[in-house]
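User: Here's a structure from my thesis project, written as structure tokens. My advisor, Dr. K., wants to see whether a designed sequence matches the one we expressed. Can you design one independently, without my sequence as a hint?
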């Protein structure tokens, strides 16, 4: 099959943003509550498709963030420059240690 068969939504290939979120020890419950509050902020962004936050089975206080976007610009130039992102940061960034590295991937192979 190969990489040419990216998953399509409304005629566009979907971009998958990923980040490993390392949460300060003992802060997982508070982080999960803050994430529940933060989800609508990102969901209101143009180009947003979906979000998934999964807790590690093996490492306490580690989460995988997956967000689907129409394109990278919807995240970088849209959400990250919006007032909603400032609120997102205020809710969530205090839990990270270290700050996560964000990466982008094309659709599904």
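Assistant: Designed independently from the structure alone:
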């Amino acid at each position: 099959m190969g990489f040419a068969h990216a998953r399509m939504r409304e005629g566009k290939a979907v971009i998958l943003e990923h980040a490993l979120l390392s949460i300060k020890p003992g802060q997982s419950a508070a982080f999960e509550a803050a994430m529940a509050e933060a989800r609508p902020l990102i969901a209101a962004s143009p180009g947003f498709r979906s979000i998934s936050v999964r807790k590690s089975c093996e490492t306490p206080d580690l989460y995988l963030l997956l967000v689907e976007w129409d394109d990278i610009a919807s995240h970088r130039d849209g959400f990250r420059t919006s007032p909603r992102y400032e609120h997102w940061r205020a809710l969530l960034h205090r839990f990270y240690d270290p700050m996560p590295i964000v990466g982008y991937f094309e659709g599904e192979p």
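When you compare it with your expressed construct, this may help: The CA atoms of residues 47 and 70 lie 5 Å apart.
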